UniProtKB/TrEMBL annotation:
GO MF terms held by the record: thiamine-phosphate diphosphorylase activity
Name the UniProt record assigns to this protein: Thiamine-phosphate synthase
Residue span(s) of domain Thiamine phosphate synthase/TenI: 5-186
Pfam family, one: TMP-TENI
Gene: thiE
Reaction catalysis annotation: 2-[(2R,5Z)-2-carboxy-4-methylthiazol-5(2H)-ylidene]ethyl phosphate + 4-amino-2-methyl-5-(diphosphooxymethyl)pyrimidine + 2 H(+) = thiamine phosphate + CO2 + diphosphate; 2-(2-carboxy-4-methylthiazol-5-yl)ethyl phosphate + 4-amino-2-methyl-5-(diphosphooxymethyl)pyrimidine + 2 H(+) = thiamine phosphate + CO2 + diphosphate; 4-methyl-5-(2-phosphooxyethyl)-thiazole + 4-amino-2-methyl-5-(diphosphooxymethyl)pyrimidine + H(+) = thiamine phosphate + diphosphate
Required cofactor(s): Mg(2+)
InterPro entries assigned: Aldolase_TIM, ThiamineP_synth_sf, ThiamineP_synth_TenI, TMP_synthase
Free-text cofactor note: Binds 1 Mg(2+) ion per subunit.
Annotated pathway: Cofactor biosynthesis; thiamine diphosphate biosynthesis; thiamine phosphate from 4-amino-2-methyl-5-diphosphomethylpyrimidine and 4-methyl-5-(2-phosphoethyl)-thiazole: step 1/1
Amino acid sequence: MDTRLYVITGHAFYKGRSLEDVIAAAIRGGADCIQLREKDYTGRQLLEAGHVLRRLTREAGVNLIINDRIDVAKAVDADGVHLGQGDLPIEVAREILGAGKIVGVSTHNVEEALAAERAGADYIGLGPMKPTQTKLDTDPVVGPAGVLAVRRAVQLPIVAIGGIKAEDTAEIIRNGANSVAVISAVVGAEDVETAARVIRGIVDRERGNRA
Ligand code: TZP
Ligand code: MG
């Protein structure tokens, strides 16, 4: 599951714009994976948003991942799910979703990264890179230095997350992350498309520079 700019939904940041407008702009700017994550949505609201995102992502040929909810992922025929440390285990998600689906896991250190790899995850989220107002219950900061340690330990694609802005991106990619995942820096931007394009450009440049 190679991705370069992984954009996660966050309706609180939309400034009155629609989900469809915000995510379509992010995709035009270079988002190549979209995750539906709305902690305060009902199942019904997630399903509705999931259908909108499935249409947009399918048209654009980008992956759609659903956070936490394997049932919603199955219902909208998403490309996969993203699981936290407390969510259902990877093998259960695979059993429910069937073959060929993407399963990502949130990790916060080398031990969790190794466990996710052993359990057969397709990629790991790693964070937070910085403190963030978007997820206040967040774990201790891993930081860009933590990416180096995890990169040495696992082969899996690393998607860095948490408080990432354009100016943080180069160091994170240089330290071995494949991709950055962002909420506020893209979906909360005045110009969503440009914000995505700037971050995507940095990822492309730094990955191109990688030995
Ligand atoms: N997981 C760890 S930090 C975070 C999540 C979902 C929030 C990321 O949001 P932002 O606005 O990019 O800091
Ligand atoms: Mg979760």
